[in-house]
Write a structure and sequence with these properties.
Strand content: 25-35%
Radius of gyration: 30 Å
Helix content: 25-40%
Structural class: alpha+beta
Order of helices and strands: HHEEEEEEH
Number of strands: 6
Number of helices: 3
Length: about 150
């Protein structure tokens, strides 16, 4: 009789253990977080030239007939306490009166593989940049093509 009572107690215990195992395996298949996955801030900016061109087109005082345009490939640079991809751009653009203002350096900061900002560079920020010709910027807006 005691053996029968023990068996009766074991059966529900075994069923509970099996139910717990099956429900925990189901829970493991569910996503662990809600929302999009986090962005890697240091993805290499593969389309950096196009993004810089689009930004320059919208920010230059006069975006026609840019001269002496150069760009550096993105490199990881220490920015504050983090590292980010940066690229330097040098060009000679015109002011609102149509006069060339001389070469100016700009630095582009990238986050998650995309241009985050393009700002005037200080002397040391682009001092060691490995510039290459950037004819796409020189041909961006010729004559009266875009303004």
């Amino acid at each position: 009789m005691i053996a029968n009572a023990a068996r009766l107690c074991l059966i529900p215990a075994l069923l509970l253990m099996l139910a717990a195992c099956s429900s925990s395996s189901t829970l493991l298949k569910l996503p662990t977080s809600k929302g999009p996955p986090p962005v890697d801030p240091n993805l290499y900016p593969t389309d950096y030239k196009k993004e810089i061109l689009d930004t320059m087109k919208n920010t230059l005082e006069v975006n026609t007939n840019v001269r002496d345009a150069y760009i550096s490939a993105p490199v990881l640079t220490q920015v504050g306490t983090s590292q980010r991809y940066t690229a330097c751009v040098r060009s000679n653009s015109r002011d609102i009166e149509g006069s060339y203002i001389g070469p100016k350096d700009r630095i582009g900061y990238f986050y998650g593989g995309h241009l985050n900002q393009l700002v005037p560079a200080t002397g040391e920020q682009c001092a060691n940049a490995a510039y290459q010709p950037f004819p796409e910027l020189e041909h961006l807006c010729q004559a009266k093509e875009c303004k």
